[in-house]
Design goal:
Elements lengths: L1 H27 L5 E2 L13 E9 L4 E8 L10 E5 L8 H6 L4 E4 L9 E4 L9 E6 L16 E3 H18 L8 E6 L2 H17 L8 E7 L5 H6 L1 H7 L5 H11 L9 H13 L16 H7 L7 H4 L28 E2 L3 H5 L9 H7 L2 H6 L5 H4 L10 E4 L5 H9 L3 E7 L7 H10 L4 E10 L2 E9 L19 E7 L6 H4 L1 H13 L4
Parallel strand pairs: 4-7, 4-9, 8-12, 9-10, 10-13, 13-16
Antiparallel strand pairs: 1-2, 2-3, 3-7, 5-6, 11-12, 14-15, 15-16
Helix pairs in contact: 3-4, 7-8
């Protein structure tokens, strides 16, 4: 009798425990970080929102700001994902406002008026808990009372982000069991592997709370100078942006190296290629672009072309659409060598080429907005900037390929995806460094589909013969899987240009389904 009634008793325990767990979920999150409404939005949130600061250095009140959107599906069981934008120096509110956040932002009723917010049907919170992190201190809403903390580097940024995560999971212990992923784009191609390294080392040391780290996904990410910076000339030719004779000339004189310390003839040919591309939106060659004259001068400061030639064809352009991708100072073709990183605000004013952050700036500089999201006022931390000049950022890491090799060897899941019309980090360079890892192809290059249409192409790789490998639809902690995908017609910020497709591959990949 006891044996036959056991399943029923277990079922009763499970049913009784479920409401207790969900009440704990609600109770454990800090009430003072709860966001109950937002200026510009009318209606109920589909899920709970939390935001505020986590202090990573008490002495200087160095504090990193986060905005958490709980999953609309299953907060207790869905993955916890951190989103990071690039730069270095770009606020992750870029992603929140313009890419995969819970709202679509529209201009206000009057010029300069508070933007109107509508629910985003393709928010990544549909299938995951997602947290937008402003990192390092000095970026976005994150700050320190000691401005010396605004001098930082790749490794320092990663160490502070790890401190943040450990303290954040103490604030939200209910999410410690959830699968944890890092995500982002552009210079997050450096942020994410270096943060992952801190997380994995902490796990190996037994640091508490233990983070249930499972892997990461990176879009159009900065990875390796040789691959990233050498891809733009072949990409430009392949996309039909330069003629074959120009491509053959630059290829013959540059011998496959199109950046760095090249000879005068090579540099002149590279400059001519860049001149042909000058009016393009480098973050999406299909999108419109507006050029500030001072940006164009900064881009060609070291050009061998005469100033009169460089100014041929200049026109006054209206500002037709909002564009706001923040990436590294790509147009200067500068390598990530150890030392101070060049920042766009210091090169040509506050704006990035082909960008406008008007809607986000109006909203995030509104003191009512800051109050309800628990952010510090402008009087203490200044105006919000998409891409800040407040920080002095130093490169102190090299190629990220070795990091990717390390984590895939340890069994972590990795998705590398590229918008195929991005001239900033062209997909051929990304595809080349993925192939350079030497992994065996287990899912040959093929189209992947959304709504019965080709949404891009994908290729899956195993780790190597040392480890057993399987496809993404059957994940095991003993296995390593790397996937590289392209998004047709998409640019540097994939969730912005292709929101439906981005949610589709994101959902499938998190679920371990075949793309």
């Amino acid at each position: 009798m006891a044996s036959s009634s056991s399943p029923f008793l277990v079922l009763l325990v499970v049913i009784a425990a479920a409401p207790v767990f969900f009440s704990l979920l609600a109770a454990a999150a800090p009430d003072e970080h709860l966001v109950t409404g937002l200026p510009g939005f009318h209606g109920a949130f589909p899920s709970k929102h939390y935001s505020g600061y986590v202090t990573v250095d008490e002495a200087n009140e160095k504090s990193l700001f986060y905005y958490l959107v709980l999953s609309e599906r299953d907060p207790a069981g869905d993955p916890m994902v951190v989103w990071l934008n690039g730069g270095p120096g770009c606020s992750s509110f870029d992603g929140f406002v313009y890419e995969n956040g819970p709202f679509n932002f529209e201009p206000g009723n009057t010029p300069g008026g508070l933007p109107k917010l509508q629910l985003n049907p393709y928010s990544w919170s549909k299938v995951s808990n997602i947290m937008y992190l402003d990192s390092p201190a000095g970026v976005g809403m994150s700050y320190s009372l000691n401005k010396s903390d605004y001098t930082t580097s790749d490794l320092k940024t990663a160490a502070d982000a790890h401190k943040f995560l450990l303290k954040w999971f103490e604030l939200y212990p209910e999410f410690q069991p959830n699968p944890f992923y890092l995500s982002g784009e552009s210079y997050a191609g450096v942020y994410i592997p270096t943060i992952a390294d801190e997380v994995v080392k902490g796990m190996e040391k037994g640091m508490k709370p233990r983070i249930n780290f499972k892997g990461y996904l990176i879009g159009n990410g900065v990875t390796d100078d040789d691959y990233d910076l050498n891809a733009f000339v072949p990409f430009a030719h392949g996309m039909g942006l330069i003629p074959t004779d120009m491509f053959e000339d630059v290829k013959a004189t540059c011998h496959g190296t199109f950046w760095g310390n090249v000879d005068e003839i090579c540099q002149e040919n590279v400059d001519r290629v860049r001149w042909e591309l000058k009016d393009l939106n480098k973050y999406n060659i299909l999108a419109p672009c507006y050029h500030h004259p001072e940006i164009q001068e900064a881009e060609f400061i070291n050009s061998s072309l005469s100033s009169s030639f460089r100014r041929l064809g200049e026109t006054e352009r209206p500002f037709p659409v909002r564009k706001r991708m923040a990436g590294r100072s790509w147009p200067l073709r500068l390598a990530r060598r150890d030392g101070l990183a060049p920042m766009w605000p210091g090169l040509g004013g506050r704006s990035l080429p082909c960008t406008s952050d008007e809607l986000a700036t109006i909203w995030l500089d509104n003191e009512d907005v800051r109050s309800v999201i628990h952010a510090k006022p402008k009087s203490l931390i200044g105006s919000w900037e998409l891409y800040t000049a407040r920080i002095d950022y130093y490169y102190d890491t090299g190629t990220m390929v070795s990091y990717h090799k390390k984590f895939t060897a340890l069994g972590y899941r990795v998705l590398i995806y590229s918008g195929d019309h991005d001239l900033c980090i062209p997909f051929p360079g990304t595809e080349a460094w993925v192939k350079s890892m030497g992994y065996q192809v287990v899912d040959r290059w093929r189209p992947w589909y959304f709504s019965q249409q080709v949404a891009g192409y994908t290729e899956g790789y195993d780790h190597n013969l040392t480890f057993l490998t399987i496809k993404a639809s059957n994940i095991s902690p003993l296995l390593a899987q790397v996937v590289v995908s392209t998004l047709q017609g998409s640019g540097h910020a994939v969730p912005e240009y292709k929101p439906k497709e981005a949610l589709a591959f994101y959902s499938r990949w998190l679920a371990g389904e075949k793309l």
